[in-house]
Amino acid sequence: MNIEYLSCIIVTIILNGCKSSTSDLFHFDPKTLKEKEITLSQIADEVSYIQLDNTFPLDLIISSIKFTNTEIYLNSRDLGILAFDRNGKFINRIGGIGRGPGEYLGYLTFCVNDKSGTVYVLDIGNVIKVFSRAGQFIRSFSFKGYGPVIENMVFYDTKLFIQYAAQYKSSDYEWIFCDTLGNVIKKQERHLPEFTNNWGAPYPICIFEKKICYYNGFADTVFSISSDMEEIPSMIISPAEHRVPRSNLSLEQIRSGKYLILGTILETNHYFIIIYSYHKTYHLTIIYKRNHESFLIDLKDWNHGIYRNGITNDIDGGHYFIPEEYFSENGKEYMVGVLYPSQIRGRLASEEFKNTIPKYPEEKKELIKLAESLKDTDNPVLVLVRLKQ
User: Fold this and answer.
1) Alpha-carbon span 59 to 322, nearest angstrom
2) Most buried of 15, 52, 172, 220, CB within 10 angstroms?
3) Is 232 helix (H, G, I), strand (E, B) or coil?
4) What's the maximum distance between 2 C-alpha atoms anywhere in the chain?
5) In 10 A of CB 28, how many CB atoms?
6) If we measure between CA atoms, which residue out of 376, 362, 340, 350 comes closest to residue 49?
7) Which of 311, 345, 334, 353 is nearest to 65 (CA)?
8) Phi, psi at residue 134, to the nearest 5°?
9) Under a CB-based contact definition with an 8 Å cutoff, are residues 2 and 285 in contact?
10) Residue 170 per-residue DSSP state
11) What whole-number distance in Å separates Cα of residue 177 and Cα of residue 184?
């Protein structure tokens, strides 16, 4: 996506907050976006780092980082879900990998009740397993009658929001809400007539204030769901060959990379942030809600979750920033990214870093101290960016 595509998404969601008529929907067209850089100091006023301790070597963080008031939860390959305190000290594992009642084989998707610390893990077979903050197994419940594949879930306003894959003919519902015991509260019938597709795509979800925003790539639509569990469309992808076909794809089509795939959608008080791929290239777009000004960054090569570009960090001169999660706390907003020690050390060894004069030179000195304490074999470092009010 480029700048104008992001603008479309943001404008659509903004319009949707006021009206629900489909005539008000904004159409997003990735072909019209233009590249434009943005620096971190334009949107943020502080960068801090949380070094995760080395109790368990994490290798790669797979997909999710969840912040609560007191803990950080993440899933790591071969380890499952781990809990750390807000200083990066390891607390405990949540359950374990296996086939037992207190174990799971699938853990790509999980969510956390930020008040109780209860963790909900999506295991294989559409089974959701529930664990206490201490990592002890509590219960499980199954949702096999609503669709063959659960694609995503979040904990929202005391309820679980569960989204189903749209590309399967046997998917009768787009999503359901259930309570913490697994009792269904509400369900949304699918938007599309029956079809099958042999290739799926990410189903990004974000929570901002009191609404869920989710993307259905086959309906080519971003939907918003309010606290009363009513949904309205927020944005439509403009018709063109970049929309994913509702049919089986050939190997040539899959390899072409010509389809628009939204990987991450985040919303803040002032911005919408989207990471997407289009024509085999990954992009990061940021849209300013007030005047719809858009910024587009080409993320260049991607390898195992690591990009070679991002938002220029002119606050302390450190590595570029890729936002992966968002949360608000005590009236302040934060974005979260992940850096590996080799990235931090490599950046600080570069001539560019040595010659850069960041906005806060004293923070550059602190970053140098951090880098000097790291070994390449240490666990990843979380980057916490505090957004401007």
Assistant:
1) 18
2) 52
3) strand
4) 60
5) 26
6) 340
7) 334
8) -80, -5
9) yes
10) T
11) 6
Contacts of 100 (CB under 8 A, 6+ apart): none
Helices 361-373/341-349 angle, 10° precision: 120
pLDDT tens digits, one per residue of 140-194: 999 877 888 999 999 998 999 999 988 888 888 999 999 999 999 999 999 888 8
List C-alpha distances in Å: 174 to 34, 214, 373: 33, 11, 48
- Residue 385 has, within 13 A of its CA and on its CB side, a CA count of 29
Spatial distance between the Cα atoms of 328 and 45, rounded to a whole number of angstroms: 15
> What are 29-61's pLDDT values in tens digits?
888 888 888 999 999 999 999 999 999 998 777
**pTM, 2 dp:** 0.88
CA dist 87 and 233 (Å) reads 39
The b/e string for 193-229 (b: 16+ C-beta within 10 A; e otherwise) is eeeebeebbbbbbbbbeebbbbbbbbbbbbbbbeeeb
Residue with token string 């590309």: 167
Token couple for 388: 């401007």
Mind spelling out the 3-state secondary structure of 274-300?
Answer: EEEEECCEEEEEEEECCCCCEEEEECC
Q: Which helix (H) or strand (E) holds 94?
A: strand 90-94
- Tell whether the torsion through CA atoms of 324, 275, 330 and 384 is positive or negative: positive
- Interatomic CA distance for residues 307 and 348, integer angstroms: 17
Distance CA 107, CA 120 (A): 10
Tally of CB atoms within 10 A around 54: 12
